[in-house]
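As described in the Methods, two query proteins were run sequentially through the folding procedure within a single session, without resetting any intermediate state between them. The first query and its resulting structure tokens are shown here.
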Amino acid sequence: MTRKTIIVACGTGIATSTVVAEKITEACKKENLHVNIIQCKVTEIKGYAENADLIVTTTILKDNFGKKSINALSLITGIGEEKVLEEIISELKK
């Protein structure tokens, strides 16, 4: 299976993106998916987007950079967390 690259971004590239990246990593391990996660600030996405397969953010993204993007704020709040993780895993399996 090929390794997919995911950009996980938040406002600072430190706080909520860390929590989201950890949850995505755990979910991918359960599904035996090999991923490379790039954690960054939302303002840095453009620099990484070309080589990414998926963009996951905890903020509103004004541009999708030509990639599928998923808002993962629910991975912070816990409300709807399972649904978002399923969406991420489904996208990675494509």
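Immediately afterward, the second query was submitted; its sequence and tokens are:
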Amino acid sequence: MTGTMTNVMTLFVVFLGVFASFSLSAHGVDEDTKQFLTQNEGVSILPFIYIGAKHMVTGYDHLLFLVGVIFFLFRSKDVLLYVSLFTLGHSITLLFGVLSDIRVNAYLIDAIIGFSIVYKGFDNLGGFKRFFGFQPNTKAAVMIFGLFHGFGLATKIQEFNLPQEGLVPNILAFNVGVEIGQFLALGVVLILMSFWRRHGSYLQFSTAANTLLMSGGLMLVGFQLTGFFVS
């Protein structure tokens, strides 16, 4: 392996490792954001776009899942299709959850989001065919898990009991911010992965990378279920 390939592989593994470690605190809302959300009144388009983008960039669980989704997608149109399905799914439940005031337990929904990462790593490792003899519909799975990811976002927003005045435009702005953040973060991931894909080490270390994905997802599931049972 050349030095360049070693550096690229190390960078990617560190990238996944950092995401896995920080996945335990994914979806955190800093004090400035909390203060804004609890004190805001009326329509605030730009602040909500910013909060949505920041939430997605620091939402390591969402990004880990998307890394798994695009890991073996080598054509741009496939990446666009799958990311669009995920976007459609989480947009539906984000907007529906907040505007309809549908509340779900934050620990349980975040545990399901963690499970989505486990699922995708297991799928990329060929686990379904190897152990169960069938392959789930990958497009449907991405869409369905996107719905759960959207409920996770909705749950965090609802914790702040946003005032009804300006709620619809504010939530739409938040969703736009989420898509902007997702676009920016995923763009960086795709650049790194495209560079790594030029080398044979990409497929050589695919098993290790997807095992890391599963590990990160399992950590998140365990953390959230522990929080559910002790809260």
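Residues 19-26 have pLDDT under 50 and may be disordered. We note this only descriptively and draw no conclusion about the first query from it.
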